[in-house]
Amino acid sequence: MDNEENDREAFLPLFDDCLKICIDSGKRPIIEIKPKNPALRHLKKLCKYIDKVLGLDKVTIIAFYPWPLIKLRLKYGRRLHLQMLIEPHMFLIKWAKFFRMDIDIAEELLVKEIVEDFHKKKLKVNVWTVDDRDSLNKFEEMGVDFITTNVFTQKS
Length: 156
Known about the structure:
The chain has 6 helices and 6 strands, in the order H-E-H-E-H-E-H-E-H-E-H-E.
């Protein structure tokens, strides 16, 4: 693995190590489910492991496809914090509201009305990926709950 420091000893940590790093640093793990429609038994195995190591209430699970998130919502209810990634399919916003999931939406798709609608339903909005100051200010003014960025920190 290569990186900016040319550290040839760098490596990708195991999932278990990632969770422990989050615990030690006080960060909330964001776990993305990549497959379109994984078997429920695989999702249950993942959740059982997360619950053992960290607790289901301490993670956020995201996915571009609705099927894994719907399965998790039906199996675990509101014990899991779920965010549906919205891009490019805006119809998924209706699904997210119906299944009581927060959304994680691409910045070019987000308008104030979406934020207001989700907040009325006590759901949260994350916007990604915001890497310029004008956009950051715009989304802060909209009242989004989370902003995913590659350049800003909470102190910026």
